[in-house]
Each structure stands twice: as structure tokens, then as C-alpha cells.
Design brief:
There is one protein chain. This protein is α+β, with helices and mostly antiparallel strands and 98 residues long. It has two domains: 1-30; 36-97, no CATH class. Helix content is 55%, strand content 15%. A three-stranded mixed β-sheet has the order 2-1-3. The longest helix is centred in the first third of the chain and has 29 residues, at 2-30. It is globular.
Amino acid sequence: MAFGLSGFVQGKKALRRSLSGIKEVTLKSATIPKGCLAIYVGEDQKKRYVVPLSYLNEPAFQDLLSMAEEEFGYEHPMGGLTIPCREDIFIDITSQLN
């Protein structure tokens, strides 16, 4: 009987950890306004930016996405869209899109 109870307690702890991870992801995604997406930019240290979805139609931004595809394919290490360019280049490009 004690064996079954300890397995239950361990399972409950694992479920609690999983749910807390889901809550953390939900809180991060809740900070993204409607009509925008979060991306990570940088070569070594990645910084999170929130950009309008309309950027996806811009040729300059599509070039950045092509860089990301060449670098990572569909496996992004940050769990989201990651663009492997210097932050200052990204800021220059997106400031021209505004």
C-alpha cells in the first residue's frame, strides 16, 4: 500500500511541475499584444522583441526569416522564432519598416 501511495505522490509532484511550466509559458504569451509575434534576436545573447505581424509581408523582414531558416531550419533553440543577426542590424531594419 505504501508503494502505491509514494508513486501517487511523485506523480502529483511531476504534474504540478508540468502545470507550473504551462502557467509560465501562458504568462509570457499573454504579454504579446494581438496582431504581434515574439521573436528572439542576437548572435550570442538572444533578446526578445515583439513585432507586428505585418512585418512578415516586408521583403527586408523576409530576408531575416530566410537567415533564420538557413541557420536553424524549424528547430529554434529558444522555443520561438529566433533570428541569428546582430541586434543593431535588426533594429535598423525594423525601424525602416515603421
